[in-house]
Amino acid sequence: MDVKHQVFVSSTYVDLVDERREVMQALLELSCIPAGMEMFPAANEDQWELIRTVIDESDYYVVIVGGRYGSVTAEGVSYTEKEFDYAVERGKPIAGFIHASPGDIPASKTELDPAAAERLDAFREKVKKRVVKTFTDPASLGGAVSRSLVALMKKHPKPGWVRGEHAMTDATRAEIADLRATLADMEKTAAVGAVQSEQSDPTYAQGSDLVKLRYGLAVKGWGDGTWEGSTAVPWDDVFSALGPLMIDEASSQVLRKRLDGWLLTQVNNLPRHASELTLSVNEDDWQSVIIQLRALRLVNMSIRKRGVADKSTYWTLTSLGDRHLVELRAARRSETVESA
To answer: Taking every annotated instance into account, which residue ranges of this chain make up the domain DUF4062 (predicted)?
Structure first.
C-alpha cells in the first residue's frame, strides 16, 4: 500500500525562500506531503486555528531556524516559535535544523532589531535542546532533511495517508459489514425502548396531583420582613408554567426565577399594601420539582456544547414533554361551531 506522510515545515519565509524550496523538493522525493506557510499567505490570529489543524493532521514536523525571528503574534512570540511550541505540546516527532554559522548569514537576512535578535537567540537555544542538524546552504539543508526524515520515520512510524481505494481492504469491508449489522440491531432495540420510555410512570405524582411548595416571601412597604409559607399546586400547572421556556432550552437559574414569579401569583392572602413582594421557592422543593419532571420523562438535561466558562445546567423538553405541553397549553376550538 502506497503510504504518504504529511510533514509540516515551519520557518520564517523571506530569508529562507531557497532553503524552503530545497526542503520541499527533498520531501517530495521521499513521497511525503509538504505542508507549511505556503498554504497561509499571511500570518495572523485568524489563521492560527487552521495552522493548528494542519499541524494536528501532519505526521512529522520540521523546523528551520535561520537569521530572522519573523513576524510576531500579539503576545510577542513569532509564529514560527508558536508553531514549534504547539508541535511539542501535541507530541509530534520533530526534526530541527539550524544554521551552522549564524554570524556568516548576510545582513539582509538577519535581525537588525536587538530585541528581535535576542528572542531569536533564545528560540535557537530552545530548538537545540532537541536533536538538531546544522546546514550552511540550501543544498546541504535539503540533504540533511532527507536523511533526518528517513531516520525519524523508522524511529517514530506513523500511519500516514493512502488513497481511498487502497484504504478499504477485505478485512476492513468485513468489519464494516459486522458493525453495520450490530448498529442495525442496536437501533431496533433503541426504537423499542424509546416507545416504552415515552410514557410517564403512573406510580409517580403527576397531572392534577398536588405538590406542596414552600417559599420565603420578602415584603417591603408594609410590615417589612420575610414571611414563610407554602401552597399546593397541581403538577400540570407547574409544568405548564415552566415548559415553554424549555421548548429550546433554559438554564436552572432561568427556570428557578420563572417558578418564583409564577408561584407568587398562586399564593392567597398576600399583603395588599406592600410596595414590593419577592418570593423564593425553598431550595429542596425546587430540586424536587426538577427531579419529578425528569422522573415523569418530561425534561432532560441539554447536551448542547457550550463555552468552558459556562457552568450552568440547561434543561430541555423530551418528545413526551413537548407533546404534553401542547396538550396543556394549545388553544382548542369551541365544541359548538357556527355553520356558515
So the answer is: 6-87
Work out how many domains the chain is built from and give that number.
3
- Cα–Cα dist 185/289, whole Å: 36
338 in any annotated domain: no
Do the beta carbons of residue 321 and residue 298 sit within 8 Å?
Answer: yes
Say if residues 8 and 87 touch (Cβ distance below 8 Å): yes
CA-based end-to-end distance of the chain: 78
Contact of 123 with 63, CB cutoff 8 Å:
no
Could you tell me the three cell numbers for 29?
522525493
- For residues 285 and 229, state if they share a domain: yes
Give the CA distances from residue 299 to residues 212, 296, 314, 318, 339, in Å, rounded to whole numbers and listed in that order. Answer: 20, 8, 10, 5, 42
Range of the domain at 181: 169-197
The pLDDT tens digits of the residues spanning 6-32 come to 999 999 988 999 999 999 999 999 999
pLDDT of residue 340: 47
Residue 131 — very low, low, confident or very high, per pLDDT cuts 50/70/90? confident
Cell for 70? 519573523
Helix or strand or coil: residue 95? strand
Contacts of 51 (CB under 8 A, 6+ apart): 40, 79, 83
In a domain, residue 336? The reply is no
Q: What pLDDT digit, counting tens, does each position of 141-183 carry?
A: 999 999 999 999 999 999 888 776 666 677 777 888 889 888 8
pLDDT digits (tens, 9 = 90+) for 274-316: 778 899 999 999 999 999 999 999 999 988 888 878 889 999 9
Q: Which residues of 72-95 are buried (b: 16+ CB within 10 A; e: fewer)?
A: beeeebbbbbbbbebbeeeebbbb
